[in-house]
Design brief:
This protein is an alpha+beta fold. The chain is built from one helix and seven strands. The chain has one domain. Helix content is about 20%, strand content about 50%. The two termini are about 25 Å apart.
């Protein structure tokens, strides 16, 4: 996943791309409590809600979709595990998320 986040005067914004597609981020944060929440909207697709906490250069918390939720951690690439270790786990996590999305109530999928 490639992600750029900007924190300015309580507003959290950004954009990026992952195995699902391109997305934009909009939300809020508190410098006092270090809490943040945002929506990650995939272009012409679904939206994922996030809530979390900042600790040093790490943000951690939970993501929520209808019928599914899980945990996340975000950190600057230079501060986290080697990129190879991230890439090895990313496809498995993406497949699990895509399976949950396909099974979500009201979701229509194209015939294969």
């Amino acid at each position: 996943m490639d992600l750029v986040l900007e924190f300015r005067q309580g507003i959290l914004s950004g954009e990026g791309y992952d195995g699902i597609g391109a997305f934009v981020i909009s939300g809020v944060y508190s410098a006092d409590t270090r809490e943040c929440s945002w929506k990650k909207a995939y272009v012409a697709r679904h939206t994922v809600e996030y809530s979390g906490f900042g600790e040093d250069k790490l943000i951690w918390g939970t993501w929520i979709l209808p019928g599914a939720k899980g945990g996340f951690k975000i950190w600057p690439l230079a501060e986290g595990p080697p990129l190879k270790a991230i890439e090895e786990h990313e496809p498995e996590e993406q497949r699990a998320l895509q399976t949950k999305l396909a099974a979500a109530p009201g979701r229509q999928t194209a015939a294969k």
